[in-house]
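To whoever picks this up:

The nightly regression suite flagged Diguanylate cyclase as changed. Nothing in the input moved, so I suspect the structure step. Input below, exactly as stored in the fixture:
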Amino acid sequence: MVNPWLALESGADPVAHTRRVRRAHEAFLAGGTVAPPVRQVVADSWRRSARARAASDAAAPIELDESALCAYRDRHPLARAMPVFRELLGSIAQDGAHLMAVCDPQGRMLWVEGHPGVRRQAERMNFVVGARWDERHAGTNAPGTALAAGHPVQIFAAEHYNRRVQRWTCAAAPLHDPRTGRLLGAVDITGGDHLAGPHSLALVQATARAAEAHLACGAPEPVVCLSALGRDEALLVTDGRRLRLGPRHSEIMVLLTRHPEGLTGEHLAVLLYGEREISPVTLRAELSRLRRLVGPLLGSRPYRLTRPVDTDLATVEAELTAGEVMAALDTYHGPLLPLSEAPGVRRLRTALEGRLRCALLGAREPDLLRQWSATPWGEHDLEIWEALAHALPHRSPARTAPLAAAGRLRAEYGLTDGAAGHQARR
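Regenerated output under the current build:
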């Protein structure tokens, strides 16, 4: 079976393949249709890039300046894995034909290393530290697509969405926290067409596994972790076992993490169902099914969790309490169980979003405001767009986009120009 994550089949002519993919790319930009020989993973990425209005002929944006970058990456978990990356990829990065790069979960480049001549060439497309290379900002590329797809991937030449990047070929693999299962970023090698062989994909995948094993060696004893931000189905990691929960079980687990003292059946039913009349048998059946999944982690009389559970919700709250707004924004992968209508979950979701937005508005940092406005949950946030415009220098050309976005939203919400500061929420 052909590996869909590899760019070229064995024996394929890279020059001819590049011509065919380039024609398909131009046809997609012109009409939105994808034709062979474009791989499915690339077609899906092109569509995501187009929906996000990623630039097809512009340099990736730089989001972290030198001072912010140094402080951020010094405390980033992947800093501990850099010796592994340099040991396994360092010789390749210094051979005069490749670059090694490591990014965070948002696609921001934290380390870009390699021969100075190759780095200077890559600088022309802003493949530099501090630049944002997720699909939303840079289109289809190996680190950005690996983050989006959650799988090691190779992107060859004209498969890149952005024409400026089409002279390059890259392979990247996502990296996860071995303790919690949470995404930490991606490791990438970038170079010429010779990287299109299977060796480069295998190499970055092996490097990612080695880095995760290295991080696991220094990790604390296994704990129970629950990730529910930006997910309709929460991810439970317990003693190294990853379990995706259904929507109702996700709601129950989130609520129980907020009540370590336990909840009676009546109280839990109110948090889950509100004023709807639900038979106690219905709740007991849900809890029975959940207990079969999580075992002794779920106790009863009252219903409670028998071990401490780390949650991404609590992590964001702790970072906000410590005044670490950038860290909180990075940890916040989206609204808490966004499709949940459980009253208890909705209150938690609204409270966390409101607290994070207040911190962003209070910080008045353009990079943070811009990052929020670039998300699906922040792109319609009028108050954030207005704050971004006010945070930028008055004569800065960068104010054009936020002012235009704020104007569109005021018109969409039926607000007058004098209603600045009013937040029309979705």
